[in-house]
UniProtKB/TrEMBL annotation:
Record-linked InterPro entries: MTPAP-like_central (IPR054708), NT_sf (IPR043519), Trf4-like (IPR045862)
Highest taxon of source: Eukaryota
CC terms in the record's Gene Ontology section: nucleolus; TRAMP complex
Protein name per Swiss-Prot or TrEMBL: Poly(A) RNA polymerase mitochondrial-like central palm domain-containing protein
Domain Poly(A) RNA polymerase mitochondrial-like central palm: 104-203
GO biological process, one term: RNA 3'-end processing
Record lineage: Eukaryota, Sar, Stramenopiles, Oomycota, Saprolegniomycetes
Stretch list, region Disordered: 1-59, 273-294
Acidic residues compositional bias, start-end: 279-291
Amino acid sequence: MRDPERHLDESPPPMGSPSELSAIASKMMKHPKTLTHAAPDDDSSLHPGHFKRKTNKLPTPVWFGDPSAASTAASASTLAGQLTSEVHAFVAYTNTEVESAQNSVQDSIARLNATLDKKWPEAACHATCFGSFASGLWLPTSDVDVVVHGIPSTDLTSTQEVLAALLSTEPWVRHVSVVGTKVMVVKVILKHCGRRMDIAVETADTQHGLAATEIVRAAVMSIPVMRPLVLVLKTFLREKGLNNAFTGGLSSYALVLLCLHYLLHRPHNRVIASSSSSESDDGDNDVDEHDEVGTRAQGVYNVGAGAYAMARVVTALENAFYATTFHRPSRFTPTPLSQMIHWSGPVPGAAV
């Protein structure tokens, strides 16, 4: 709409005389950086809009370490070969990260034991790890599950509250809270690293957890291909926000049982599992498909009962299959494995 305040005799500013336009064009030719559509200065191709690409190089996922390792994996003739090489590199990288984190975890356990000994010197209290940290399937981003043995109390609720109050005064603890789940736990955030630790007091339920840890540890020892599979899928579910049973995802234990069932019952994997079992030094640690791991009566051991977002888990796995099968390298997913989990490592220089 025309501005009523504007005078009718106003006109657009003049374009300039031909001599002025010629001078501007001559100046732009002397300084080509001012041109919008610059000519390429290398062998890179141009977009349809004729803008120059910044680079043709894709980033290297952190688990490869250097671009040459990524190139070696990419040179495999099949997708299965590429994924195999990349999973090996991913597991090696994860092992390094776990080893560097284990020292701080063990230091925190030692501090916790010192605190328990100070509070109950005559009770011989002690804390031990269970779950994925004890079974060898732990990721550096995962919580650490701890059970405390020997606290002299018959009231479980008051014991948890006393333990939480005790830990809240410790200088190595940033935050403490008590969560009333099936197994009441004291959730602790460590001050020096920000890692989370779930501390439970010994009960019948924690005894089941300790027994399950031994079953999983035996499976990891007798089936070597299980650990890489679980580590990749745990990372995958974490990136999708589906690794927490409280929000409807799959718990770590449910995922382990899923992988174990797959390895024992898939026809092409049964031979792998049985041959791997024969390599175990101790036959008592072997796990096979007929092992009794608990009753199913009334769903007592239905570890996936709380996974109300199972449809999202299934959809995520389907999407990962197609994304990997039809992988197209991009800046954010340069390799098949990074395409699957949609993650290629932390940004260099980013805060942890």
